[in-house]
């Protein structure tokens, strides 16, 4: 018994509905509109400021189409990612990213130019980039619904045909029927307050799975970023210039930003505070770094700390799948899921195809977001077109696993749920945040966590959801719960250490496990192995 | 965490209400907006960046307030400081094409 047509104040019909308005969603919307589709884009926050890119900015995998450079680029992460990436996909994404970045220049993004006239397109300033994307999306005639989280997908027996949600500003329900839907809701960082990530709670994974889609690579979901203890800014690139210390100024042996993050985690687990100082940054580079990432310095300036000369306490903040690589399993070049009419792009989709089980310091994620957005937008537009007249006559119904009931239909007769969403959220965080559960994994730890997480899921999945502001938090709690269960089920199945997935009971790579893990199901989760294309990257 | 909307500076354009990704603010009829759900703030600084009146301050700590007074923040030139650094606002050039960016791109491979 889910949302009915008459419950919704705002009802729209469109060809393509895009859920999520970060880089992936905006590129999907632009591409679908350029193919002649009518497009609606709904964002939980505000398209232009919401999501992981908007406040932070990204390095971008922009590589000149020269054979040698491309080859080096493809190899750069291939082994770190555990050889799970695919050559064809890397080629496609490098091509599409190159094209999209050049288009951005034409559309008015001002890339840096040196006095000799060389242009640099390996990075994007988040606020600037996403402000421009919003402008372009609007100009393309896309209807944007801000502050309008999707709560469930709509479908009939032929496949997905829309979504329903609620406006968090005003509380009115909305319902959009569509020929095709693109999920671009980003990853899941479990409300850790990593920069820009608190809108990213795995909603798209949950909605896609409710429609029958599968996940891939969910074991690659334990990204932790270095940040000062007093700050949400999880930008890590500059920690390459950091030395790490104990309070007394002695060096923490082996600690580092890329290879030595585990050492930092171990010290923090022992309750020893670790400090950083960017004392390896040459003096003449420092003013450039300040311009390169303005907001990296914001917290320091506000605290009166000079990070180049002063030690400051650091922590590791969970970014989950945002800088992990797992997500919705896609089945073809258009980023289609196995469910007809449903597409996935950006962090919501698996990124294993281009970087395997590890993303390292960025660039790939941003490239994937804009490329997969373009692929999915095009695929969704073509699918919607193929439905023709049929699309408008579809009778679609909501798919939420917990029934969503309208306050209008039921008035106040629905009882307040016995357990607050915040309690569920805390319970999930207790399983996924600790380094000794999620970063350093073991069969015993995973089994314990799964036992508790399964209980949370059993409780939350049957509770009716009252369609008001609380509905959003309850769906977030459900999405985080099921995401954590997929993560740990696939982590349990991968009895080796590969990419970012670390098993303390299986510390080595097992070459017989060079496959991707596909998880499916909500109540009963199953995991299966999928072969990686044998066409290896040539050395 | 969002700490201040300056009554003195705010022009009640309600842009912060629109751009906040986590819907922290509420509009108030004929008045400046209010911080209605402070605990939902994710400390992303976007409201500060969009505020055309340099009327907002976000304390760096995601869970704690700094309790600095408006006068103190003004003194330290923290109101509108981020917006200025990023080069947003009339008469400013966005930092994305700053000459240092090109120099940095030469020396720093992401
Ligand atoms: C601090 C930081 C630094 C990073 N640096 C780099 C880097 O240098 N290079 C790199 O390649 N990558 C980097 N990344 C990763 C990169 O930011 C992401 O890969 C990228 O933002 C993904 O784009 P996206 O559009 O898929 O998701 P997002 O940009 O996260 O956008 C998702 C959107 O979906 C919306 N949404 C969520 N749920 C719903 C719902 N239920 N209904 C409607 N809308 C919803 C959100 O509001 C949001 O606007 C970084 C990430 C972080 C956190």
UniProtKB/TrEMBL annotation, chain A:
Pfam families: FAD_binding_2, Succ_DH_flav_C. This is L-aspartate oxidase. It comes from Paenibacillus solani. GO terms for biological process: NAD+ biosynthetic process. Its cofactor is FAD. The keyword Oxidoreductase applies. One of its GO terms (molecular function) is L-aspartate oxidase activity. It catalyses: L-aspartate + O2 = iminosuccinate + H2O2. Residues 431-512 form the Fumarate reductase/succinate dehydrogenase flavoprotein-like C-terminal domain. The active site is at residue 261. Keywords: FAD, Flavoprotein, Oxidoreductase. Residues 15-220 form the FAD-dependent oxidoreductase 2 FAD-binding domain.
UniProtKB/TrEMBL annotation, chain B:
It comes from Paenibacillus solani. InterPro entries: 4Fe4S_Fe-S-bd (IPR017896), 4Fe4S_Fe_S_CS (IPR017900), Fe-S_Ferredoxin (IPR050572). This is 4Fe-4S ferredoxin. It comes from the Bacteria. The keyword tRNA processing does not apply. One of its GO terms (molecular function) is 4 iron, 4 sulfur cluster binding. PANTHER family: ADENYLYLSULFATE REDUCTASE, BETA SUBUNIT, BLR5484 PROTEIN. Residues 1-31, 32-61 form the 4Fe-4S ferredoxin-type domain. Pfam families: Fer4. Keywords: 4Fe-4S, Iron, Iron-sulfur, Metal-binding.
